[in-house]
Write a structure and sequence with these properties.
alpha/beta; 7-stranded mixed sheet; 3-stranded mixed sheet; 197 residues; 30% strand
């Protein structure tokens, strides 16, 4: 891989465009990923916010579930925001019927933990490993992490709840950094992809 990693954004549903813009500003070559062939061409992948149940069903429909699980298990760097965090969890506390996860982070996640759409909020979040002060996080029907296993490292909390976790090449946040214009988390993930390459 050259100095510019190719990072995909799973483009089945959710705020794909905002992630593509944030990744491009972090000096990555960003592209949407909908099919297994497109997944095979990226060095890392962002799982965007959206509706986690819908995303898991669309991933199954597009023949993406197994290829995604295989790439993540093989160590492809992956970053999940909000619904993407739920997809990366090894276990969901209150799954909807038919909801599947991709796994990758030894954590138990509670869906919509911070409340419904009308209870969305923004907050400054201190994230370990991110320089320059707190990151502005947008929480929209956001999950939180109930607990993590030995392999996962908590890198941010808000209001006494875990809101960001890293395990090896997998990163997850409850909040949406792509909606704020602060692209430090995307730059951090781009560095993770470079390091893995």
């Amino acid at each position: 891989m050259n100095d510019t990693p190719v990072i995909g954004v799973l483009a089945l549903q959710g705020d794909v465009r905002e992630h593509l813009i944030a990744l491009a500003s972090a000096d990555a070559l960003a592209r949407p990923v909908r099919r297994p062939g497109e997944l095979a061409e990226v060095d890392g992948l962002v799982l965007p916010g959206g509706e986690s149940t819908t995303m898991s069903k669309l991933a199954a429909l597009f023949g993406m579930l197994d290829p995604l699980r295989e790439r993540i298990a093989a160590g492809m760097p992956v970053y999940g925001t909000c619904a993407g965090m739920i997809l990366l969890a090894d276990k969901i506390l209150d799954p909807r019927s038919g909801q599947e996860t991709l796994g990758g982070i030894d954590m138990i996640v509670r869906r919509n933990a911070f409340g419904r759409q009308n209870e969305s909020f923004e907050a400054a979040v201190d994230v370990a490993g991110i320089d320059g002060g707190p990151v502005e996080g947008v929480f929209i029907r956001a999950p939180w992490v109930e607990s993590v296993g030995a392999g996962a490292k908590v890198i941010a909390e808000h209001g006494g709840h875990i809101v960001a976790v890293r395990q090896n090449n997998a990163l997850a946040t409850s909040f949406h950094p792509e909606l704020t214009g602060d692209h430090r988390l995307h730059a951090y993930f781009t560095e993770m992809v470079r390091a893995a390459g």
